[in-house]
Amino acid sequence: MRAQFGCFNTCGQLLGPADIATAAARLAKAALVGLTLVIGGATTQAQTVASLPSASKVVEKSTAKPVLAWTKFCDRHPEECAVDVAEPATITMTADMWRTIMAVNRRVNTRIRPMTDKAHWGVVDSWDFPEDGAGDCEDYQLLKRRMLVERGLPRRAMRMTVVIDELNEGHAVLMIRTDRGDYILDNKTSAVLPWEQTGYVFVKREGQDNTAWVSLGGVTSPVSTANR
């Protein structure tokens, strides 16, 4: 079964009927590869660089408006949002690098308690580090990125990303861009998956050349990420 990490629904209603229909159609096409998530917990330990499935790179479409809560997060933590173009835009995957990524993903997923922003802070959407040990989807991913930066990975190659999940709701994941393709760290599973095997519709993510966000060609962006 999928590990029970993560976020609760608070803003699924932000998607209109047409968006939901589009997302549902795309998710249906991804259903077979999306089954990887179901056995993710069982395969996590077995994943190695040699067995890592090949991933493609997500294609950017155009500029996109960032989530409002992200903008407020950047006001509080500008160093987390700055883009250093001197850093590599992709990570060269090695066995040690893969073990580090897997370990951080598992550690954060198992140690942070899932809690909605409404229950936590009294607001629909707030992005921040789960300093008190509780948070929702984006908080997990922000902590993972900070921990990976502390372990020497370039922040520029790790991008906060907004998707539409299997429930047709907004969700935040961390995209790691590598020489083997783009992989996803998710609080819903401790398996690290190629982006196209998540079953999600990819909406937008942080850019790599400046602080603007970029569209990934998904459905109309939700105003905020769901607390899942």
Topology overview:
Layout: H1 17-29, H2 31-34, H3 40-43, E1 62-64, H4 68-76, H5 78-81, H6 95-111, E2 113-114, H7 117-121, E3 134-135, H8 137-150, E4 158-164, E5 170-178, E6 181-186, E7 189-194, E8 201-206, E9 213-215
Parallel strand pairs: 2-3
Antiparallel strand pairs: 1-9, 4-5, 4-8, 5-6, 6-7, 8-9
Helix pairs in contact: 6-8
Description:
This protein is an alpha+beta fold and 228 residues long. It is 31% helix and 19% strand. The strands form two sheets. The chain has a seven-stranded antiparallel sheet. A two-stranded parallel sheet has the order 2-3. The radius of gyration is 16 Å and the shape is globular.
Give the structure's gist in a few sentences:
This protein has helices at residues 17-29, 31-34, 40-43, 68-76, 78-81, 95-111, 117-121, 137-150; strands spanning 62-64, 113-114, 134-135, 158-164, 170-178, 181-186, 189-194, 201-206, 213-215.
